[in-house]
Amino acid sequence: MGSKKRSSEDSTEVVEKNQTDASFVKKKKSKTDAMNADTDAAAAAGPGVASSGKDMEKKKKRKASDKERKRAALENKDDGGASLPKSNPVVVNSSTDEANDESLPAAAADSSSSSTLPELPLNYFRDLASSDASVREAAAESLVSRLQEIQKQYEMLADKDSVDGGLMLEAEKNDGLDNCAPHLRYALRRLIRGVSSSRECARQGFALGLTLPVSVISSINVGSLLKLIADSLSVSSSMKGQDVKECLLGRLFAYGALARSGRLIEDWESDKDSQIIKEFTNALIGLAAKKRYLQEPAVHVLLDFVDKLPVEPVVTHVLEAPELHKWFEQATEVGNPDALLLALKLHEKISVDHPVFSKLLPVPFSSGKFFSADHLSAIGNCLKESTFCQPRVHSLWSVIGDMLLPEAFVQSEDVTSVSSSSKKQKRNRKSNPIEEEATNNIRNFCEFFMEGNLLSSSHDRKHLAFDILLLLLPKLPASFVQHVLSFKFVQCLMDILSTKDSWLHKVATHFLVELMDWVKEDDTKRVAVTMALQKHSEGKFDNITRTKIVKDLAAEFETEDGCTLFLQNLMNLFVDEQHVPEESSNMKWSLEPCSLNSDQSQTTDDNSEIGSNEEKDSVGTAGNSDVLKSWVIESLPGILKHAKLAPEAKLGVQKQILKFLAVQGLFLASLGTEVTSFELQEKFKWPKTATPIALCKMCIEQLQLLLSNSQKIENPLSKGNGLEQPDDPVSYFMKFLSTLQNIPSVSLFRSLNEADEKAFKELQATESKLSKEERNCGLSADANKFHALRHLVVQLLLQILLHPGEFSVAASELSVCCDKAFSSSPDVLKSDGEGEADDEEEPAVMDVLVDTLLSLSPHSSAPMRSSIEQVFKCFCQDVTNDGLLRMLRVIKKDLKPARHQEDQDSEDLDDDDEDCLAIEEEEEEIEEMGETGESDEQTDDSEAVTGVVPMAVDGEVNSDDSDDDDDDDGMDDDAMFRMDTYLAQIFKEKRNQAGGETAQSQLVLFKLRVLSLLEIYLHENPGNPQVMTVYLNLAQALVNPSTAESSQQLLQRIWSIIQKKIFKAKEFPKDESIELPALASLLEKNLKLAAKPFKSKSGVDPSKKKQSAAWNRHKMISNLAQNSTHWVLKIIDSKKFSETELEKILDVFRSVLVGYFDTKKCQMKIEFLEEVFRRRPWIAHQLFDFLLEKSGNAKVEFRRMEALDLITETLRSLVPINENTQEDSKKTMKTHLQKLSHLIKQLVAKMPEKQAKRAKVRKFCGRIFQTVSSLKLTKSLLKVLGPDGQTACESALGDLFLNLKKTEH
């Protein structure tokens, strides 16, 4: 539409430009004649040529013509009237050749005229619509300069009527601008029409062009101009919607130009009785009332104008405008936010209460009354209707935001937050009236308006709520977060975020991003936001919204003050106080830990323990508040995870968390909900409602985790000073526990039976003794043992409270072990002594300790397992062979014996050649056919492993290789159940349960935990002879089909330990007790295992998954056997056996080669044998003659072809060709020449049909011929081959053999 208007204007200007000089001259010469001409001639000459006659008819026709032209201009909507109607073209001065010198003629046509005015170039108006601001500004400056010049000369003319009569242009005689030059009147009209154009930046440019001449040319009558604006841009019934909108916007821009010109103020200052300001206010408010989109910009125009006015005209003129009274009167009914904005700003200007504000502002006015519930309800419609300008935020809200958070209050809060860093200052700081008023205002605003009107309404109003909060965030103090992030707001936020396709999802996401950015550098704000989100979501904000907002907030505390503040708020949230105090108490622990309801008697607590498990152990059944408390408990140990604190500061935070968890999980008060400890100088609080057993257990578990983490990261203690170490969290906890136990009104949260209570006390006494011994040991190795035992004792003590009745026996045994292991006098605590009374041999202390650790492992939590591993690590070098075998027995235990176990026991156990790895043929067939219980596909990680070897050991170790029943037969029943209590429990469960699935899973879990201990043992004892025992048992468990059947995780765990801790260890067993016959036997079994074929049972069609699992297991066992062979050979090499002794090893390989060449079932990989020969050349050299013999007489033809590479590899190391070894190599070659020639004759006599194999034969023979030729043994070879052999070689090898004969020596 704009382009269409531009083309219309340009076409008009072109018509004007193309008028020739001749036509203009002709008009000048005929002016006198035209004055006496008839009406038609005058009309044809156009409005640019004035008629000299005084005829009334001509005036009427001229007025009619002007009205028609005005109507046409409004319909065409050009760029501000730059072109005149074609029927009335403006005469253009053609005295210049430049196309841009369009101007209005300044002189009358009569050459005798003595007065002329400067020209007015029309290109100024075109440039006012440019999109370039600099171009618009230059055009406006040029236009006002030219108009000033024209008006100045016009005022100096003696005969103004002659100019007026000669060139009226578009100006009318009754427009009130009689003192203005025609050019100025024309420019004003065109500028007024221009502000109604939507082309490019016409409104901005023409408004600027209108502002400047009005401000500097005093001849312009402001009242007349105001009337001219209304008349020129009036709306008629024939106009369409877009035309109406442009006219109204044009009037708005014109009024704005008039307000900014300053003429209204000048006129009032010159005549204070002038009504121009009132008229302007009426016109502007009347315009605003026409359309809603005009209200806010009209208010801004009026406010800009009022800012420049003194108070007096505002009161006497602006506020007295009738339209303003009417507007304010209807504001609350129709919901007019702009009227409220205007009222607030006008009241701020005059600073007095005026009757006109009575419906919008409270009387007397104050921010407290403005934000009262009644007044917010009265102006609610005005506030709610501000949503019409979305996505932009209405200007009203920046004003209300300043009222809610005045600058004085924000500055005082900033100063207070800096100066009140200490607890004492915070406690003594008194709230001032400004703070109290601001708090009440924000509370009322959020409660009555945000929650009552916006959050419960439409999407647009919810959007407005987010916008308001974003507007308040930059200045919002942390203390106001609890009011702003209210329950309803957080619920609304969660509802939106939980639905990704919601219209407001992006709005809510953006709000969270800004909120996270707002709290980035302020721990106080971060704590306030975190608490608000979790408190109002019942601890489920992240779960419901599917975000990590709370998790990220809680992970960003890095300073001591931030961690302490977060900890304080968490504790108070757990206590569920209605108001979280900002300041701390005068106690060291200001955030009183909370525990169970102290009003409940011991009997009530016991009854609750007898109740249903759902009521006790399920956090979810206790209600949403329990979910929130569980989040508090889980968040406590994580406070220190990301904090960058000094050791002293970290210890202080640890102690606060430790005390809180101890009180919550371990104790309750029998009287009231508060208990004061005079010894600790601290006060402890309990929640008013009873804490479920499940939450108490969570506290104990987190307490265990906290102590376990402190054990991992704590610094070495400065022992040896004989003083209690404050750095030790264990000592601090035990002292704290003992102190609370001594308070009469405090007791444990649950009653203990006699055995548990005795064990509890024994553990406390044991820890006390261990602590003293640790301090006396200084920095010795025993100190680490004492320290590890103390951690285990504390973990076991907490386990007794978690699982009563399950750990009392283990606790007593651990106490006995600690007493006997480190007692230096007979007066220490003793065991029950039943063994001594019966004259029985007392078991070794380390055996009992291992048994105790094993009995603790199955049911233990992760922190306790960590303590068990630390204790085992300290004592693993002292573990006896008996204790180690007990651990390995757990790994080999199986709830499902192999289905052919009985037959194997009767047939195989008496066999001298029993497989050391317990790989039975029938068992493997079962596994290969997928008949084991589990069919999960097994990964073939074993192929990447090297150096995996099962080992044969001396008679003592071999005795352990028999069936598990034999191991158990060596012990009496009491020892069996004492050492394998958990295994006995599992077998009992299996008998009681259908299928035994639970027992099987428990056994797998137990095995995994024992494997962790064995891994520690192997790491700490890499060269110990017992490593061989560990390896042999692990290898047996690995190849046992039931292992893969029970758990793939268990299988991979065993494989990982064998790989990393045995095969890749820098040290390996070198003990003299490992004899060569055992190693030879183990080597033979490994080679047989490597050659064992993959079998499948006929008549069975297993699934692809089972078949794949069986094949993967076969490959794993094959790789295990191959790598085991390499490791056994490495051990043999380290022993430095004599050649006679090594003959047994060679016999093993000879038997393997016999099986390889004589049977097709052998699955030995030739690449494996090549690797053996490459690593151990002495084996290859000793077996080379036997290898040639078996290759030449092979019963299986393809075996001969496979062995060629093996022979070539051996020959390379056996017969090196260089100057130093020439003679030795020649002698060696001569000894094998006979069998080599026999092999060559066999190959050429039966050349393969396939080209690849023929090429392989030619390559092998070529290599032999080259070696023979280099050693000058060609003649000897030809002689051995004989005529028949040479003929066969010539026929099969051709030139390759002929070239050899040419080098005959």
Automatic annotation (TrEMBL):
Keywords: Nucleus. It is found in: Nucleus. Residues 1-19, 65-80 have a biased composition (Basic and acidic residues). Residues 33-53, 102-116 have a biased composition (Low complexity). It comes from Cardamine amara subsp. amara. Residues 957-974 have a biased composition (Acidic residues). Residues 1-116, 586-622, 923-942, 949-974 are annotated as: Disordered. InterPro entries: ARM-type_fold, DNA_pol_V/MYBBP1A. GO terms for cellular component: nucleus. Residues 595-611 have a biased composition (Polar residues). SUPFAM superfamilies: ARM repeat. Pfam families: DNA_pol_phi. This is DNA polymerase V. Belongs to the MYBBP1A family. It comes from the Eukaryota.
